[in-house]
Design brief:
Belongs to the NtaA/SnaA/DszA monooxygenase family. By secondary structure, the chain is of the alpha/beta class. The chain has one domain: TIM Barrel, CATH 3.20.20.30. It contains 15 helices and 13 strands.
Length: 481
């Protein structure tokens, strides 16, 4: 990254610190389907608590900011119009609930944070509020939520609905969902409502626990929050999605956003838009931290890394990658010639990830054409995100380039094999980034919450310029408005 000398004292300003999250999913094949066949991969053991305990200890040792867990509520059935290849290739199937291992991982770590993907589409806000307040308590405040709205037909059918909610309406519903949660998390309990007084046989003061009465377009409830305030009250809020509606939602609610692209130059305008929208809403645009997906393949030397990459390609499931991309974009890639130039118009599904579909309208020197052949080569290792192959210095150079060109704050680092890819990050990449002064050094403050890890010690609760602060007990009215 470029460095500018401070003319007043001749010193270089502090280097921007890069935040690294490990990106995983409670499934056999996440973004690199087929690697379960690799004898070095332990993905098939994720149904065991020991996998998650060992992973948490490894990430803690490397000073990784958080374990970011993706999730989904249905299979990918766009490819060939069937779920069969999704199941056969283990393309994010089967998948277990990512919330369950969190307490076990928190018990063996002090600093590692956890961010879980959960949808606003499938359960009442009260139930999610209770579960996430519990997780924030159990982790000592080391908990974040990646907010998504659901789009898969299979997921809606699983809960008895034939048709997913229309895209922009999903975000309108999610906006109300978040405001209900703020009322519960921020506005129900006074800071001193929990006041144990044994002599009075009184544990909490009911007069200081407000009943939240909400009657909106999508949700109605009348209740006090059943969990006392957790260390952060509101978990650190991530959001994924850069469509027009998604960007508006992120600028309003997100403290961190998760983005994906094959080029930093394509990402930059989207990030600039979100920061500008946040500024227009009275927020500090720099308070929104942006993480991009990124898959490193590391070796002690560039040559060693290239040899490792060639070995990994032997196990990649080309069809598994096409299953994922077909599902994300709504384009049945089985129907097109390998060298057919794809575009957004080829998407025949109404329900898809629009920010990923947008990639097919954007090319770069790295990807001058989007064809099924190109996708088949790229999607089976790292999804459609960038893959960097090289020594620690080579990969660190690439990370710094992305930070500067796209205005990023950090990365969600995907794996090809687990725990091998994460071991390489901890043992090879982290020391290189520390040597460059762009990654937190060892021996930092312990026991910080997820929000403090991002904003600094002392910032446990929502910032004052965040919309959720309007719902705090001290400033809101009886119904939390």
């Amino acid at each position: 990254m470029a460095e500018t000398i401070n003319k007043s004292n001749g010193e270089l300003p502090p280097k921007k610190q890069i935040l690294l999250n490990a990106f995983d999913m409670s499934t056999v094949g996440h973004l690199s389907p087929g690697q379960w066949k690799n004898p070095k991969d332990r993905s098939a053991t994720k149904r065991s608590l020991q996998y998650w305990i060992d992973l948490a200890k490894l990430l803690e040792r490397g000073g990784i900011n958080a374990l970011f867990l993706a999730d989904t509520y249905g299979g990918y059935d766009t490819y060939e119009g069937s779920l069969d290849n999704c199941i056969r290739r283990a393309a994010q199937w089967p998948i277990t609930d990512p919330t369950i291992p969190i307490s076990a991982m928190a018990a063996v770590t002090k600093n590692l944070c956890f961010a879980i993907t959960a949808s606003t589409s499938f359960e009442p806000p009260f139930l999610l509020a209770k579960r996430f307040s519990t997780l924030d308590h159990m982790t000592g405040g080391r908990f974040g939520w990646n907010i998504v709205t659901s789009w898969k037909k299979a997921a809606f059918k699983a809960i008895g609905l034939d048709t997913p909610i229309e895209h922009d309406e999903r975000y309108a519903q999610a906006d109300e969902y978040l405001r209900v949660l703020y009322k519960l998390w921020e506005g129900s309990w006074a800071p001193d409502a929990l006041d144990p007084q044994p002599s009075l046989d009184s544990y909490a003061d009911p007069s200081k626990i407000r009943t939240i009465n909400h009657s909106g377009k999508y949700f109605q409830l009348s209740t006090r929050h059943i969990v006392d305030p957790s260390p952060q009250r509101t978990p650190l809020l991530f959001q994924a999605g850069t469509s027009t509606a998604g960007s508006e939602f992120a600028a309003t609610h997100a403290e961190a956003i998760f983005v994906s692209s094959h080029s930093p130059r394509i990402l930059r305008p989207k990030i600039d838009t979100i920061r500008q929208l946040a500024k227009e809403k009275g927020r500090d645009p720099r308070s929104i931290k942006v993480f991009a997906t990124f898959t490193p393949i590391l070796g002690a030397t560039d040559e060693e890394a290239r040899e490792k990459y060639e070995e990994l390609k032997k196990y990649a499931s080309t069809i598994g990658g096409l299953v994922l991309v077909s599902g994300w974009t709504g384009i049945d890639l089985s129907k097109h010639d390998l060298d057919y130039d794809l575009s957004a118009k080829d998407s025949t599904e109404d329900h898809k990830v629009r920010s990923l579909l947008d990639q097919f309208t954007a090319t770069s020197p790295d990807v001058p054409r989007w064809t099924p052949r190109v996708i088949s080569e790229k999607a089976s290792i790292g999804g459609l995100g960038p893959v960097a192959v090289g020594s620690p210095a080579t990969v660190a150079d690439e990370l710094e380039r992305w930070v500067e060109e796209a205005d990023l704050d950090g990365f969600n680092l995907g794996y090809v094999t687990t725990p091998g890819s994460f071991e390489d990050v901890v043992e090879l990449l982290v020391p290189e980034l520390r040597r460059r002064g762009v990654y937190p050094q060892e021996g930092g403050k312990e026991g910080l919450t997820a929000r403090e890890r991002v904003y600094g010690e002392g910032q446990r609760g929502l910032r004052v310029d965040h919309v959720g602060s309007r719902y705090k007990y001290e400033v809101s009215q009886e119904d939390g408005e």
